[in-house]
Amino acid sequence: MSERTSHAAHPDLQADCGSCFGLCCVALPFSRSSDFPVNKSAGTPCGNLQEDFRCGIHERLRDKGYSGCTVFDCFGAGQKVSQVTFEGVSWREEPDSARAMYEVFPVVRQLQELLKYTAQALDLPSARPAHRDLRRAYEQIDTLTRDTAQTLLAVDVDALRGEVNPLLLRASELARAAVPGRKKNHRGANLIGAKLSGAKLRGSSMRGALLIAADLSDADLRDADLIGADMRDTNLCGADLRGALFLTQPQLNAARGDARTKVPQPLKRPSHWAA
Ligand code: SF4
Description:
By secondary structure, the protein is mainly alpha-helical.
């Protein structure tokens, strides 16, 4: 990848549903809940999946009770498993390979998520002292994602995550050290339902924090590290998230926001947010 372009915006790390065999809609299970109107077991195609592997209710997912689908992101795993691991032969064309495809998909999804975080760290100019190690980790994981199904099924993802996490933490510390002011540490904090409207959290660590239904409206979250934070139903109306570290599209999609919420590039404002 070029030094001048955004690593995190690389097409390999974005879902390309047109090149995927609808793997998230087949391989993964879901249960009847506030996120899904019905039960579906792993390996069973969703009833809304069309012959062309497109979703038949894509524009009406929330109205139909499938909000769970709108907060999912494969980080590019779908097209990689479909086109690289299984060389463009779908589970419909080759039913004998279906099971392996469904098992490989969640593994590659986790690897792609790691790649995404690593790419985001590579986009941080102030984390430059960590870039050499991050680049090496990126190349190692990317090479792994292009290996055979057999190799992928044997990957110890937790061990790999344990190797990459210290690099991401170092990048976070370097980047946040460059931010002026005192930074708060809410790493792993239970902030479910917390009243944090207007809070000054610039450059803070919110790593793995539970922010479910927390009120972060009008909060200053610029340059805050939000890796792994649970942001389901978090109120981000008017919040400033520019420069937030390791924030992902699924986290934003799971939260609530409005037209005033400032979203970091290259993430997109979810279409279901208030105007
Ligand atoms: S509702 Fe659509 S997006 Fe959700 S699992 Fe079914 S086919 Fe996929």
